[in-house]
Amino acid sequence: MARAENKSEAGGTAHVVAALAKALREEQQLSQEQLGKKIGYTASAVSAMETCAQPASDQMLVKLEEVIGGGMGVFQEARKWMLLEKYPKRFRGFADMEAGAITLCSYEALVVDGLFQTEPYARALIGGSYPPVSEQKREELVEARLARRRLFDRDPAPMIELILEESVLRRPFGSWEILHGQLRSLAEDARRDNVCVQVLPMDRGLRGTYAGDRGPMKLVETAEHEHVVYMEIEDQGILITDPAEVSQLAHRYAKIRAQALSPDDSLSLIERLAGEER
Fold first, then answer.
1. I want to staple 229 with a disulfide (CB 3.0 to 4.6 A). Which of 33, 108, 116, 240 is the partner?
2. Does pTM surpass 0.90?
């Protein structure tokens, strides 16, 4: 059932990759088993890739480029588009914008931002979501989410800001060990020169003002120096480009940032929570 669903959901890039891989394999007179041995996969995995029952993973594309690519770079180029197709439809348009961002500022109120998630945290979060997805779809979503972390090391490096509600740091998914691992990873990311992480304390409302009541958002400065805001509400992706609306949301984000703990105090809190025993 899952593989039939994959065939129907596979995007155009997956079908092009499948057809090209099959044509090049046959041109080089390789059986599926022979190709599988060369790239480190079973014959059934090669067959599933060629029929789109299981589209090629990023790792498989790398191996296909090495073994049958012939120096054309087609499978290498396909990696970007295959990853985009693995994202939920609501996120695909924004994913490319995020990857090319000059500045990315995010406020998250429920979970650790996807860009910062560890593999175990992402797997537990996606696997426990509703409606449930197949194991294979879960792994595709995890792979695509982890690929977003390339942004941290991009040259030129973008400026990345993240504001998290304190409750996010205390909410486990899967196990306390997974949460502690996520917090340790978050602390490491916060020490990057191009990253700033701040925490909005749980008791902020006791001071009479709280700017985060409207929910999460992402502010982006694109490579063309345009400013946009992206938000997700119940599986719906909303991209705001109107300058007046973007300006208003940017002001709200600035207020949230002003109400958050300083970067140093935020890091200290994250490190303390990461070390708590359960």
1. 240
2. no
